[in-house]
Structures are given as structure tokens and as C-alpha cells.
């Protein structure tokens, strides 16, 4: 960085960039990437000519919190005959925060020469690992701070009275469950190298995972019964005293056949969907299952485990009859454009896609029903996209593909699934099933960990109405 007439400035210690901030001026960054520095970091800046002390003030040299835009209190000093500035924090920088050291062209040399460019250095303060006391009602009180997880782990009590906190998350407890923070990548190793799958919920709330252990870089969990790892900053370990509610499966007593539902706990409420017929021998009531397959020690096979390369036993007329009947139970008045059931008559398209691409037509119909809310979603109505194709989590509507008609959407979905998710040579292939987050399409098709089970619920209701002919495909 230079004054005009080649007056030079150099940082004694360099730092790194995290994130960007929109500023009124244009800024030159000392480094391309930020660096982590201690919470009491003193910046030392050396010039090749003495600084005019009257221009050394917090208007021209200051530290700003990148997230809040507030100036951090600092003391500025001139040393070594005015050629060195030190920037000392009056109070420690906050752990986990990002800051910017600014030096502006208002700073001048004794010869009244200004810097030729505003310059900044962006730096971060690493989070501390805190050992916190856990009260009976779940409140936390920090007892001590440590620079590493291992150091905190050596000191934390094992009796359930203390936990380890990192940033805003509790990352270790003697026991409990794990909640993810929104969209979360699940890795296949504790060093968080290769991604295995990802999870999110429709409402962007937390996903409930089985807690196994905590490691220096990750939290070991089980998702649908299979081991994976998530980062310390993306999940929260809830000890028993902090668990307000937990997802459960419930068997409902029905006259002809007991029904299995799933009550998913999210953001303080339960969201319930039908999964399928109840496991044989299970009485009405609530049951815990981490994989949606094993109940009271016995495995239960439902439509998310159906090989969807098998053809349905139903005709296009059958599917049309179900769509027409079930549409009468949908409250289309809540959707602005649906004067008639939007999916009516699409049975032929589902069967045609099955014939051409080998994807079960009952599955395709159920997928369309689920992804488009029976054809009434904005993506379906505006873009004729019944399957949420390319409707990524960061911008579902904007990124969603557009088709000329619902029929075109159905045919493309058959092609898309056949050549991607059902192709053993494709990276997305995890088996020919709707599945869950450990097998089948659900691993990479959708972030909702219960997507495959919800599709199974739609298939169950259709199959139940049409005579239970496809249930035998599971045998």
C-alpha cells in the first residue's frame, strides 16, 4: 500500500478475509483470504515516512465488526519516530466474529501526502470451546473457556451436569439427541472430507439425528440408522433436560387396517403425515424408530422400499380415477388458480413415462402429488413443473425448470430419474427405491430426510383406494 509519491506501508502481521462487506469506498485488501487472530490482537503498521499525528484518529484508522457495522473500541499510538502505528483493542474482540481493520486516505504523512487507496484487512476471531454448567431446567452457565475441543473435553464433568459449547451450539453432552441448523451436509468421515448426503426440512427447521459421539472436528451421528458426521458449527447436541419434544411414529387404530403415521417435531410443533400400513403385531400407540424401518426390533417394509423399476399393476384409467376421487378431498379454494383438479387426466402420461423409461407409474404420480401439492404449487402452475426439478433449496422458484405442459414435465421426470438416479454408473445412484437418507433416491434427490417416507404415504393411499394391487410388488 502506498502514499502518493511512493510512501510505503506494510503490515507486520497479515490476516485473512471471511465474507464481504458493502462499503461506501472502494477498498484494497491486504490479503485475498482472512486469517484467524487472537482476541487481543494488536496490529502494527509500518510506514517509510513519518505520519502526521493530527490525522491519526478513529475516523481514518479503525476496526469495524463486519456483521454489525459497529466500530470496535481501539487505541491508536505512533511509535518509532512516527513511522509505526499500533492498533490495540480496548476490549477483547468477540470470539466467532469477523472484523475489518481500515486505513483510509484521510491518514497523511508529515509532508501532507495521502494514501493513494483506502486499504483494509479482514480478520476473524476463532470461537472458544466453553465448558458450561447445565441446570435442571436446561439453562447454561459458562464455567471456563478453552482454545481446543480436546482441552475442554479433559475438563468437562461426565456426570451430566456440564456440556461443551462452541459458538452458539452445544457440541458435547453425556447423552441426548442432535438437531441440525437448517441445511446441513453429512460427511462420511470425522475429518469432514467427503460429503455423504445432506439434510434440511421443508420449513427449514431442525432435523433430528441420533447422537453417537463428539470428535475434535465433528459430531458423530446416525441418520436413518447409518453413521455420519456433521460440523461443530452446524448441529446442536441436546441433553435430556433441553429436549422439548421428539419425533415419534404412531400406530392408529382403523377399522380395516391400522395405519402408521409419523409425527415430526419441528420448531415447537408436530407435523404429521401418513407413512403406510402399520407393522404386524404393533398395537396402537407411539413408537421410536431412527430409520423408519425397524419398530420394536422388527423390520417393516413399506412403499419407500419398493423397487421403482417394477411396473405398477394399475392402468392409466385407474390412476385417473384415483386422481379425480382424491382431488375432491383437496381444498383447492386455498390455491388461486385451480378451477379444476390440475392433475386430472394425467394417468396416461404417468403410464407412458413408465413404458418409455421404466419408472413405476404409481411412484411418478405420488412424486408429482407430493412435490406440487396436487399440481397447485406456484412452480407447477407457473412453470408446469410437477416434480420440483432443479428447485434447489437456495432459490426453489427461481431455479426450477420450466415445461410447456404437465405432460412434458412427467415425461422429462421419467427420463431424468431413469438416467440419473436409477443409473448405477451415475453418482446419484443409491438404489432403485424412494428410500431414506441412507439408500435410494432420498439420499440425493431431496434434502428432506423423510421425503421417501412421504412419497410412500402417497403411494399407500392410492394403492389402498385402488385395491392394494401394488403392495404385492414388495414381496
Automatic annotation (TrEMBL):
Highest taxon, organism lineage: Bacteria
Pfam families assigned to the protein according to its UniProt record, in alphabetical order: Big_5 (PF13205), Glucosaminidase (PF01832)
Entry-linked InterPro entries: Cu-Rt/internalin_Ig-like, Glycosyl_Hydrolase_73, MGlyc_endo_b_GlcNAc-like_dom, SbsA_Ig
Signal peptide: 1-24
Keywords recorded for this protein, A-Z: Hydrolase, Signal
Keyword Hydrolase found: yes
All copies of domain Mannosyl-glycoprotein endo-beta-N-acetylglucosamidase-like, residue ranges: 337-470
Name this polypeptide is given: Beta-N-acetylglucosaminidase
Species for this entry: Alkalibacillus flavidus
